[in-house]
Specification:
about 90 residues, mainly alpha, about 45% helix
């Protein structure tokens, strides 16, 4: 029996959508497991998952996790350290 497809070979994301009462933390853990097994462009794979599950509840925790995965967010900023200090 085939578990998943090309975008979700283990069927992890599909199963997450089926679990009633799943939390955001559990969805993040499932997503991490999925992401570690993805070969190639992970952003493209996440977008394909979003397209595949577009008909699902957009308030579902996994929908939010997938949205966060492709969100560009703020660019990384140096947080300090010896080289970050200026000599006065």
């Amino acid at each position: 029996m085939a578990k998943g497809d090309a975008t979700d070979p283990k069927g992890l994301i599909e199963e997450a959508y089926r679990i009633e009462g799943i939390s955001t933390a559990e969805c993040r853990s499932i997503f991490l497991d999925w992401a570690l097994s993805v070969a190639g462009d992970s952003r493209r794979a996440v977008r394909a998952l979003q397209d595949k599950h577009r008909d699902k509840d957009e308030d579902h925790p996994m929908s939010r996790v997938l949205a966060q995965a492709v969100d560009d967010g703020a660019p990384p900023v140096r947080r300090g350290g010896r080289r970050g200090r200026t000599v006065g």
